Every structure is written in C-alpha cells, then in structure tokens.
Amino acid sequence: MITLDGITKTFGGYRALDNIDLEVKDGEFLALLGPSGSGKTTLLRIIAGLAFPDAGTVAFDGEDVTGLKVADRKVGFVFQHYALFKHMTVADNVGFGLSVRKRGQRPPKAQIRARAEELLELVQLGGLGNRYPAQLSGGQRQRVALARALAVEPQLLLLDEPFGALDAKVRKTLRRWLRDLHKQMGLTSIFVTHDQEEALELADRVVVMDHGVIEQIGTPEQVYMEPATAFVSDFVGETNHLPGGIHVRPHEFRIVEDGGQPVIVESIFRKGGVWRIEGSLASHAEVVELDLDATLAPPSPGDTIRIVPRRLKTFPQSGATSHDQA
Amino acid sequence: MDIAVNRPPPVPLAPAAPARAHLRNRLQRNRSVIPGFGLTMGLTLAWLSLIVLIPLSTVFIRSAGMGWSEFLAAGFSPRAVAAYRVSFGTAFAAAFVNGVFGLLTAWVLVRYEFPGKRIVNGLVDLPFALPTAVAGIALAAIYAGNGWVGQWFEPLGIQLAYTPIGITLALIFIGLPFIVRSVEPVLEDMSAEVEEAALSLGARPWQVFTRVILPAIMPSLLTGFALAFARGVGEYGSVIFIAGNMPFKSEIAPLLIVTQLEQYDYAGATAIATVMLVASFAVLLLINLIQAWSRGRMQA
Fold it and tell me: ABC transmembrane type-1 domain location, by residue (chain B) (predicted)?
C-alpha cells in the first residue's frame, strides 16, 4: 500500500501540490487525471523519487521512503516519450536494469538476455530484441519502455502520460492491452493522464486533480455520475452550464412536445451513434449541446425544440466561476 | 453498410503497372521540391576545387617531381620524423585533454544555470576569435620559467614552456571550443528523461554516465576530437612562441616546412607537406569511420 500524507511542493512561489493525502491499495490501477498544471505529474514524480516534496511523507507498505532516491525505491517508471537508450538494442534496453546491479546480485549475461526475451514476449515484441529503438514504431517503443520497467520486478509501476505521444488508433489498442496486462500481473500501478476517457476506461479509481489539490477520488462511475465539484463535472465528460449553477450532460436531455425550455437549433451533425445538436437557449442566450438518438429524424437548423433535463447536478455558482477561470 | 458490401472487388493491376509505378516513384523521389540543385551543386564543386583541391594537388604535383629516394630522404629525414612525432603527439594529447575538459565544460553549460553563464559561454569561443600570435605570446609569458604558472613548476624541475608540454598547453587552448561546441547540441538534445530512466532502473550515477550518456554523445565527441586534433596538427601561430623550436625536441612540422622554405628548399618543404597531408587525412578518415559506425547503430 502506498500512503501519501500532506504532500506539498512549491516551484518558486507557485504551489504545484497543496497538502495531498492519498492511499493506493495493493494491486490497484489508479489514474491521476487533470489538466496541465494540475500537479499530477509532479505527484507521480514524488511517488517515484524523481522529485522530493517540501513537506509531507511518502510511505510504501508503512515504511517511510520520502528521503529515498528513485534507484532505491523499486519502482518502474514509464516516460511519455519512452526515454529509451538509443545506442542499445531493444534487448539491452530491457536488460539494463539487471545489468547495472551490484556484482553479487547481477545475474549472468545469458540469464539477463533470457529474461529480456521473456519480457519482450510478454509485451508482444518477441524476436525484435536485436533491433534498435529507432527501428520501431511509437507503440512498439512504448512497449519496450514498459518491458524495461518491468524487468527490475518493481513493486509499483508508474506511467507518465503513457499514450500521450501515440496516435488515436494505436493508443486505443495499447490501452486495452495495458488493462489486460495489469489484470494478468496484478501489479500496483499509477498512471497520469489528461484524457478523461483514458482514465475512465483503464482505472479502478480516478483521482481528479486541479491546481495542486485533489478535487475528487472515486471509481470511474462515481466520478462521472456523481461529480463532487463543478470542476470535476466540467472536466470529466461534457457538461452544459445552465443558469443557476446547473450542470447537465448532453445526453441527459429529453425532447418534449410541450413545456420545457425552448432551444433554437443552430447546427447539427452526426457524432457516432447520436445527433449532436448545438443550439441556444431562447431565455438566456446560452449555448447548449445535446445528443439525440440518431435513429430519430433530426431537426433542422432554425427549428425550435423544447427540452427538459432528465438528470442534473447543481453546484454553488461561486465555485463554478472560480474554476471556469482555469 | 450496404454501400460497403456492394462495392465491386478491386480491379487487379495490369502486370506492367507495378514496374511503371516503381519507375515513376523513383523519378518523383529524385525530383526535389527545393529548386536550384544543379546550379548550387555546380558552384559548390567549382568553389571547393578552386579553394581546396587545386592548392592541395600542387603539393602532390611538386613532390611528384622528386624521385622516390629523394622524397623519402626529404620527407622522412630524422629531423622531419621527430617533427612529425612532436606535431601529432602533442595534437593528440591536447585533443584528448580537451575531450575530457571540453566535455565537462559543455556539460556545465548545458545542464546548469548559474550567474555569469553567458560570460563563460563567450570565453569558450575566445580561442576562435583571438589572433593565434596573441595567444602564443600570452601563453609563453605565463608558462615560461619566470611566468605566473611556470615559476611554480620550475623548482620541481618541470619546464613547461619551450618543451612539448608547452606545445600541448597551447594546443589545448586552441582546441577547446571545438569539443565544447560539438558536444553541446547533442547534450542539449538528450532529455533528462533518459537519465531519469536509467536511475529509476537502479543505475548508479557513474553507470548512468558510462553506459547511457557517454555512448550517446560519443559520435559528437569524436567529431570534436577530430576537429581539435586537425587544428592542433596545423597550428602554427600560437605554438612557435611557446615551443622553443629546438630541432628533434620541440620543433613542429609546420615550422620545419617554413624553415625549409626560408632556405629555398622547396622540394624538401613539399615532401614534408605531403607526408603531413596524407597522415592527417588518414587520421581524419579513421575517426570518421569510427564515428559513422557508432552513429549508424543509433539511426539504422
């Protein structure tokens, strides 16, 4: 179990992390989700031992590791841009962690090589051990980086925007694959992302961060359906801001014949299996986005439709405006 | 969905098509978007011939006028061989020392922020800008037996100026910018992430240096080494002041050439020049091969 207690970090007067408390259970897949500047990467680096907090403690299984350097923490770290060693073959990259061990603990060369092959097999890159990183695609490089991190048998796997530099299709495949791998290995893992879809799809629990504080910790379901703050409601999934601090998701509107709010349709396009309608509320001149079942006949621009929310969340407005500035 | 199903199967290409397509691809690939290749390449070749190749070839043509035995006698006289040894030996030693300290300087300039960094940065280029004679006079004054630095070594029986050590010191001064400026961009390009990755895998700092950083910057370090070495072999202005120029001890090959010329021994001078030229070329070729080998592995 990883326990963070009162972690605070400032960079030249700027509070990157403000009194963060967090517990990560064994075997859990945790996402740190937030916009850039929310402090999520700094927090991950502090857990890794690549950065050190100004105040607060980091404990692994009850043991204080706050002062330990990254080399002594037994963590695997996967970087956004892979950070592979370009002058080494893929197999040498993967075996690096074993080959730098002290003489007594270092396995013989043949054994390191065998272990590297085994891990490459695990990340579905069997037989590519003799290539150089420059000869691989982005997705393959990221898997090499993962195999390299796993080679030292870490007790904790940390991933910083692991799919950030990949194109959409590769990202999706790799995401699913990583989720399966996590299930298979059961290794406690924390990953940082700014992509809410990624966090909701992969994580057991999501930590939503903004401006150096934790806004909400919960399962993907809780974070999406029961956002604790206006920021979470806004950042996780799409949300319409209606007057009075009311937040409604685009798919949570219903079209009615009578009553409800009149909306003038401005544009309409197909968004996957739904019609996405952008319109303006006649009463408040607010822009609203709503989704309409694509099997129904779509309205035309200029039409007036009447809508009622099926489900809504209300947040204090002062909070909402302060986050809107972000 | 229906549209996709009803689409006709793709028409197989005519047998000749692949070959034609291949040819077309090649033609297209050879056509550059940036115009003016023919003109600029022609000018480049003409210019290089005029400035580099023709003057160098006269060295060969002149020395070819001598017979073999004459050439060997002039080019490999004991005095000439001693001069080669001094020239190449000191240039090599200086390039090596610069390799170490130039790398250190580049490292400090790239990795750390400190007050006066711009000044240090400017100091590195000073040997480029300074007339070499000025450097020679300054160095001779400092390292001479009664100079600021030389006086501390004199009692120990170590003479700096007027020995190969003095020559090496001058060449270190001259060659420093080559190493720093070659290594700097590569170090800048290398993200701190790579080092952090190595650390996170349990590597100790010296392992990070020897196994991750050094191999990555080796090609550029070799480039800098080659440049510093080449400059050192050819350096004249700063060396003659500090070398003492004693035949068989501290006489460099370029100076020997000048001496021969002053005695109107053109054949002897060109013979030495030819040997220098071939030797320098061989050394540069060797360094380039090593470089191509280590670079090729990374880019493949």
Answer: 84-287
Q: Mutating which of A41, A65, A70, A146 best tests the B interface, going by the most B Cβ atoms within 10 A?
A: A70
List, as ranges, residues 53-82 from A with C-beta within 8 Å of B: 69-71, 75-77, 79, 81
Domain range for B162 is 85-250
Domain boundaries, chain A: 2-230, 250-310
E-only strand ranges, A112-198:
156-160, 189-193
What ipTM was estimated for this complex? 0.84
What's the CATH code of the domain at B115? 1.10.3720.10
CATH code reported for the domain at A250-310: 2.40.50.140
Q: Is residue B44 situated within a structural domain?
A: no
Determine whether the interchain pair B202/A100 forms a contact, defined as Cβ–Cβ distance below 8 Å.
Answer: yes
pLDDT tens digits, one per residue of A116-160:
999 999 888 998 999 999 999 988 999 999 999 999 989 999 999
Q: Are A158 and A75 in contact (CB under 8 A)?
A: yes
Beta strands at A261-271 and A304-309: parallel, antiparallel or unpaired: antiparallel
Q: Give how many domains chain B has, as a whole number.
A: 1
In Å, how far is B210's CA from the nearest CA of chain A?
Answer: 11
The answer to whether B297 contacts A50, with C-beta atoms less than 8 Å apart, is: no
How, if at all, do strands A253-256 and A304-309 pair?
antiparallel
The pLDDT tens digits for A226-271 are 999 999 998 998 898 888 888 899 989 888 888 888 888 999 988 8
CB-CB neighbors (< 8 A) of B196 in chain A: 50, 70, 77, 79, 83
- Contact assignment for A81 to B212 by CB distance below 8 Å: no
**pTM (2 decimals)?**
0.77
Q: Do domains A2-230 and A250-310 have the same CATH topology?
A: no
Q: What is the DSSP string of A27-82?
A: T-EEEEE--TTSSHHHHHHHHHTSS--SEEEEEETTEE-TT--GGGTTEEEE-TT-
| Residues of chain A contacting B298 with CB distance shorter than 8 Å | 86-87, 132, 134
Chain A residue numbers with beta carbons less than 8 Å from the beta carbon of B204 are 71, 100
**Encoding tokens for residue B13?**
């290409």
Does residue B220 fall inside a structural domain? yes
pLDDT digits 0-9 by tens, A70-113: 988 999 999 989 999 988 999 999 999 999 999 888 999 999 99
Among B200, B222, B295, pick the best mutation site for testing chain A contact (most A Cβ within 10 A): B200
